[in-house]
Amino acid sequence: MKVACVGGGPAGLYFSILMKRQDPSHEITVYERNPAGSTYGWGVTYWAGLIEKLRAHDPESARTISERSVRWSDGVAHVGDLTTVHHGDEGFGIGRRELLDILADRARELGVRVEYEHEVTAGPDERELAGADLVVACDGVNSTLRERAADHFGTEVTAGRNKYVWLGTTKVFHAFTFAFRETEHGWIWCYGYGFSDRHSTCIVECSEETWTGLGLHETNEADSLALLEKLFAVPLDGHALIGRANSDGAAAQWLTFRTLTHRTWSHGRVVLLGDAAHTTHYSIGAGTTLALEDAIALAGALREHAEPAAALAHYERERRAALLPVQSAARYSARWYENLTRYIHLPPAHMFALLGQRHSPLLPYVPPALYYRLDRAVSRSAALRGLKRRLGPRLARTLARARRAGPKM
Hints:
The strands form 3 sheets. Strands 3-5-4-10-11-12-9-13 form an 8-stranded mixed sheet. Helix 2 packs antiparallel against helix 3 (59-67), helix 3 packs antiparallel against helix 4 and helix 10 packs antiparallel against helix 11 (308-338). Helices cover 42% and strands 23% of the residues. A hairpin with a 5-residue loop joins strand 11 and strand 12. It is built from 14 helices and 16 strands. It is of the alpha/beta class. The protein is globular. The chain starts with a strand and ends with a helix.
């Protein structure tokens, strides 16, 4: 099979690795528009379950990724002048550039051709894509190939309410760190996590009202970073914030998160992979994991089905089903932050406990203090935990329908 992957992110590179492992005779090219070593973003997160999946499919790259990752198990929340610590599951961080280098090196080792500074702007029937049996659109949320057939794919975009900016810092966080600061214009907060022995990622988020009230909509990058460094001086411990991770000279951009879904994921020889197919809110830290899982599922479907159309249909069914609970968790997580004032005035330990419960479909419909007490009681009873898992989503759907219906006259 001749395969063209448009986009050199984790999804496309890992898919090319798996296809070459399945059959070295596959002719695979990855086209990446940016130079080698140039990437946006800072570090990415994942959890132990991902490494186990990677070991099952390509032990060599899994071993390197694991060796170069940093680990944490604690969560720390700074709420105003108060701090609380929560002991949780082990998490991992790795620099996005490091991850891409590992995957690109492994792909080339297996015989994949990786072409940097090669932007594909033509349709799937033109130029370099014309002879490909399969064209994988893995060029991110703004996929050029997908947009050329947007009516067919049925792209739907849902914009969030908050503003956020993706930054780096020389402060090395040894725990997943949250910091919430109240200003005269409202609350602003950051998420910080380490990804190397020198740097951490620091995502800053706030409502649009707070963003404009602080003047962040019109200040330059240097002034914005100076203001944020002052606001988050305690968790940053005097360290600097850094804008873009590459050297293209562009400033870090404040964005509104866009959740993308599609009516279908394939069109003839073209199939969507990773962020080109779907996005989930960054607050659950699942984007890289989902991209790699997409690659595993697509390669597996192509191995199991001789007919490409059947393989693509199987891949889409499998991944849609797997994504349903993740997408639900991401929606509720985003809403938790959009409604932060509902929770922020609880005692910090209680607020942090509900931060960990933000994926719950019940939480938006139960008073937070009551939910906290109920959740503590449930956690002490295996029978109640099972009941919560079975009945919680059903009760949440009932409450949501009742809220939409409104009072009867």
